[in-house]
Amino acid sequence: MWNTATRGRMVAIEKKTKRYPSDLTDEEWVALEVFLPQPTKRGRERTTDLREVVNALRYMVRSGCEWRMLPVHFRPWQTVYWWFRRFVRLLVFRTIHDVVLMIDRERVGREASPTAGVIDSQTVKAPMAEQRGYDAGKKIVGRKRHIAVDTDGRLLAVNLTTADISDRAEAQPILDAIRKRWPWMKHFFADGAYDRRTLLDKAAFPDFVVEVVRRTDADPGFKVIPRRWVVERSIGWLTRYRRLVRDYEERLDVSEAMIFMAMGNPILRRITHP
Known about the structure:
CATH superfamily of the largest domain: Ribonuclease H-like superfamily/Ribonuclease H
Number of helices: 9
Number of strands: 6
Largest sheet: 6 strands, mixed
């Protein structure tokens, strides 16, 4: 919750950064450095400071600026982009996110691997996408983010499709991805859009249950729906990063990396500055 105590904590952390609030603190860099490519013994000596590369990427995903508009305090945008594409190929951001997620779960007294989660989707405009679709329900042309989170809102998996792919059709692929990465998952909460035979058939695994949480329209006005509000809050966290308000990436893997980088940043800050 955003209150006086958390506001003061964030101000204290920002004082430890170099230039911008998105910059890595020394504690965050120590925790992050081990996941980045190490210098090789062959070839030329590395001259690029990877901490500055990561700072530039965090600045870009938070502020939403273009590659060519990175501030002059960082390395040239061509250098930052080259390293970013290498990080994407090595799945660096996904690895960092999953590791800090498990550490954060253990920090609050939970098992490292989650056993329950919530799934939902978000449709965003994608003006630069190679392929786009039309979401008739949201009346948006773009991409759809199919998101699964744990019961505290930490991102577990994301699958990107064109916006015309329904939640029902994408239920099986995202559940397959979840069971491969988090094999201890046993219970999922979903909204009424997933209440179809394809999703229920997928839940035929032993000790695996999909529970559909329906919305009640008996009383007018806004109401917080149990369990579903968790994933809705996580979607709201995504929109705090201006680069993710719309999907500006052409490639799906690049867009996915941006999402994992954004969702891993607050967790990394939380475990390094308790």
